[in-house]
Specification:
- With about 210 residues, the protein is α+β, with helices and mostly antiparallel strands.
- It contains 5 helices and 11 strands, in the order H-H-E-E-E-E-H-E-E-E-E-H-E-E-E-H.
- Helix content is about 25%, strand content about 35%.
- The relative contact order is 0.23.
Length: about 210
């Protein structure tokens, strides 16, 4: 079972990107349909999300939100709290913490930021930097129902075990392709959030 101290050590030395639009290649990109890959070449908007790792008595878990169904982008999808960078944000780390506070009521001073992952592009036009933070159990959530329907947690040990992935066949604009998803107790994580979780796992487990 991985510990909070092990995560702190693993992410030590990572830092926010100087250019929040400098993106890395998403995991499994070559499996995507050509038209989907071409969408990543469009101008991107910088964004930040928080990967909240919660310290529970039973072990570590990752907190996610289920986005409200009426939203224009990523509606009714599992997602990390976060959003587009605003003028008042000093960097995408500040973006992730501000959005987390607005969406689920967790104040920035309750989050111990331990590092970040490489910035990834999304087909909806964002360059998203995942910020990794630790949360001690016992916090209370205040959910903004205009953006978030509910929250849920996935055990970190479950996410780090590749045997728990599901390789699912999907269709997009007439093209069929396969992608990895996470399914746990009725919750489904797919799309951009799933490949951020893959990137998180690869970074944590890299020798």
């Amino acid at each position: 079972m991985i510990t909070a101290d092990a995560l702190r050590a693993r992410f030590a030395g990572t830092c926010l990107p100087e250019d929040p639009l400098a993106v890395a290649e998403p995991p499994g990109l070559l499996r995507w349909p050509r038209k989907m890959r071409e969408q990543l070449e469009a101008p991107l908007t910088p964004a930040g999300v928080l990967v909240p790792v919660v310290e529970r008595a039973t072990g570590l878990s990752v907190l996610l939100t289920q986005r409200a169904a009426h939203l224009r982008a990523h509606a009714a999808q599992a997602s990390f709290p976060g959003g587009r960078m605003e003028a008042q944000d000093v960097d995408v780390g500040a973006t992730a913490l501000r959005e987390t506070h607005e969406e689920i009521g967790v104040a920035p001073d309750r989050v111990e930021v331990i590092g970040c992952l490489s910035t990834l592009p999304t087909i909806t036009g964002f360059a998203v930097t995942p910020i990794v933070g630790l949360l001690e159990g016992g916090f209370e959530l205040t959910i903004d129902r205009s953006e978030v329907e509910y929250t849920f947690e996935l055990p970190l040990d479950f996410l780090l075990d590749e045997s728990n992935d599901r390789l699912v066949e999907r269709e997009w604009e007439g093209a069929r392709f396969r992608l990895r998803e996470f399914h746990y107790e009725g919750e489904r994580v797919w799309g951009a959030t799933a490949y951020m979780l893959q990137a998180f796992r690869e970074f944590v487990l890299k020798q």
